[in-house]
Amino acid sequence: MWQENNPYGASSSQAQPAYYQAPAQEPLQFYSGGLDPNSYAYPGSRPSLDEATQGSISQSPGFGGNIQSGGGWWTAFGTGGFEGEPPLLQELGINFSHIRAKSLTVLNPLQTIDNRIMDDADLAGPIIFFFCFGISLLFSGKPNFGYIYGVGLFGSVSMYLLLNLMSARGIDAYRVASVLGYCLLPMVGVGLISVMIALDGTFGYLLTILSILWCTYAASGIFVAVLQMSEQRLLVAYPVGLLYGCFALLTVFSVTDKSS
Q: Using CA atoms, how far apart are residues 71 and 246, in angstroms rounded to an integer?
């Protein structure tokens, strides 16, 4: 009885209404390429990791050169370095040939100074000279690193302001600090002498005065040559001499704490 009234009996698969029947399976248009993932890849998509690692960098037109080192790790510090890579010292802005040329210009201030000597200004040489100056004073019993850096910073800022007020061309602070740092080289020699000989005497006073004149003459000559203000050399030399005089005082005398 129940089977007669039940429209979904044993023969329900034959007597199912029209709305219960599954629609016809028609393939969608955007899957017409099948199940192959390469057939419906997005335009501009990147290759997979396996495909990228299987290829060679040298096959790409955007890359060239050999990244393999032709020597040991020390080749990065030389003039050649790695193939396709600039030397490490060049990336750091350190050029020993330029440092040597500027140092020789300071040691021989009577020669003609090229007005383009500071086109390639750097602070590698000045940092080395300041460090050697501080170490020499430390060995002579005068640990004045803080005073050296303070006087150097204040003097560089002051000279930068004065030179830009006096000249029409102007100069940047980087070159001012570079010139003052390179011209400290004679004072570094006096600091090395102070390790062996006490400069608190007649010989020390004469030696420090000579070093002040040497540093002042070299620095003012470079500033005048770069800024083309030869008629104002004495005005440039005066504040420069005061700056190197402060370094000379640090070399001769010891700064002690009087509060104790």
A: 48
**Tens of pLDDT along 186-236?**
999 999 999 988 888 889 899 999 999 999 999 999 999 888 887 888 999
Host domain of residue 246: 122-257
Residue 1, domain member (yes or no): no
Tokens of 142: 């005068």
| pTM listed for this prediction | 0.64
Task: Please state, in angstroms and rounded to a whole number, the distance separating the CA atoms of residues 133 and 188.
Answer: 5
Could you give the dihedral angle defined by the CA atoms of residues 190, 193, 195 and 196, in that order, rounded to the nearest 10 degrees?
A: -160
Token pair in block for residue 135: 């170490």
186 domain-assigned: yes
Cα dist. 237→108, 157, 175 in Å? 17, 16, 17
Residue 144, in any domain of the structure: yes
Residue 159 resides in a domain: yes
Measured distance CA(217)–CA(15) in Å, rounded? 115
Cα dihedral sign, 27-33-37-40? negative
Nearest of 147, 127, 141 to residue 188 by alpha carbon: 127
